[in-house]
Amino acid sequence: AGATQSPPYGLASARDGIAEKHTAACSCGRVRLKAWVDPESSHACGCAGCLRLGAMSCVFHKSDVQFDVESVAWLRWYSASTDTAGTLADDGEVPPVPCRLQCRHCGTWVADETSDFLRASAALFQCVHGVAHSESGVSPLLCPSLLHAQLFSSTHRAGTSTTHTVQQAAAGHLPQSTNADGGVTTASVAQFLRAVAPRLDGKSHKGQAGRVGVVGGSGDYTGAPYFTGISALRIGAELVSIYTADTAAVPIKTYSPELMVTAVYSDADMAAANPANPAAIAAMVDRVASLLPRLHVLAIGPGLGRLPAVLEAVAAIIKVAKSKELPIVIDADGLWLINQRPELVKGYPYAILTPNMMELRRLNTAVLGEAAADTTGSELAVALEGPIIVCKGSTDRVCTPDGAVLECLEAGALKRPGGLGDLLCGTIATIAQWAKAADKPLAWACVAACTVVRRACHDAFLERRRAFVAVDAIHGLSTAFEHLCPAMGEPDLLHRS
Known about the structure:
- By secondary structure, the chain is of the alpha/beta class.
- It has 16 helices and 22 strands.
- α10 links the parallel β17 (about 295-300) and β18.
- Mean pLDDT is about 80; it is low at about 125-185 and about 490-495.
């Protein structure tokens, strides 16, 4: 069938006299799409493919939308399955599906088309005559709070998808979060990072872009706190302090002059400490607690070790950090402590736990019981009533206390050397403290961090292959972040090196 006789490109007469409910347009305005109903569902995704479409997208049945007749001449299609492309004006035929549609003048990616549905970029939609109406009185597609709720509460899987529908959002089934002025929504990881990252205008003072503390490192493990600290700096933090054992301080200092390393306890004293002689424990707690007012965020656990006295001190440090409402990212041996004492983080909304598969099993067992050891992180997040759980794996899953799950489908490395979790810990810490300062969801900060780290690891792996190790990804962190959130100009989503 010819393109002008098939939806969503033709059949204009079927809608004659009926006002459209929503309109969308490309950047130059030559391609315009009309919708007569609210979308059937919406997706939020941070994978590379969806980022090109704007990450937040709305799904319509093709019979409910239509491109303006004049728009057809400006539409270009591309089919990844056949690696072919064409224009409707030249071919005059319906493009092969699935395919992606683009304005051939300004280059805006407008929508993905399948045999029955059109998945359009939500960022291109606008209100008709400045007002959006629906049965609930406001359109979920266009209302900032509802779009915001969907963006941070949807799940998108490769091949299949589980999404919250806009009708559910309108009915109040999703958590709504807006800022003081009514909420400026973010339509992708790139836009989220641009919303929270400090401006580089030359007017700030040293440390304003992020002061990160890391409690970790021990005589046996000095690399982990280094990876956490250096990743925070490469993402954009300005001052990183590492609080560690006396036997670890000098080695860590030799790895990087940018890290400020403070020995806050003696390995020998802590190994000999016991409840009857708590002086060493108290000394560590007092030393770190005195430094917390300087920080914006605290990462706990990388390379920490499992000395009982050290863990006891860290438990007290967590309590002090909570009293100051510091975001806390807990990884590695810090999670071992939470296994023993989950009440330390229960109900605390600024805690982020980052377990791998085995660590998640232990946490599930500790909190939910042995029978629930193999459940997903969403049950754990609900039970802890506050912390966000970042379940690391082939797909990173960010689980929130309300049961919502966000997934990062960005391609990563095919090899898993030690240290990648430490890079993620420092990256999450940096972006999370920006998000808290900007009153943005910490869950999406975690998704953004996963996206950046996975991109850096993917690119480093392509270069090193079997020789890939964590240190190879360090410089790639800044490159990946710059592609998503450039220091100046628009996000470079389409041109990755």
